[in-house]
Design a protein that fits this description.
The chain is mainly alpha-helical. It has one domain. The protein contains two helices and two strands; from the N terminus they run H-E-E-H. Strands 1-2 form a two-stranded antiparallel sheet. Strand 1 and strand 2 form a beta hairpin. It is elongated, with a radius of gyration of 23 Å.
């Protein structure tokens, strides 16, 4: 579901110009824009980095859990 964003026309025009200048979107018709191949690749790159960061985050969490288990085991042995 798309969410309505309160954005003035001038701000929208500025953002679209910036996206066009960066080759992330292309103007297809008057008032109609489409994401470009560069834009799709950019989004895929962001998605890949996000997924990798989640994997790293999970590995760090698991390492902390192992460390806590080891500490609690060693404390019980004393």
């Amino acid at each position: 579901m798309l969410e309505k964003i309160d954005l003035k026309k001038s701000a929208l025009a500025n953002h679209l110009t910036e996206l066009k200048d960066s080759n992330l979107v292309e103007k297809t018709h008057h008032g109609t824009y489409e994401i470009s191949e560069n834009g799709k690749n950019y989004i895929k790159s962001i998605e890949k980095i996000y997924k990798e960061s989640k994997v790293i985050e999970k590995k760090v969490w698991e390492a902390k859990q192992r460390e806590q288990l080891s500490k609690s085991f060693l404390e019980r042995k004393q």
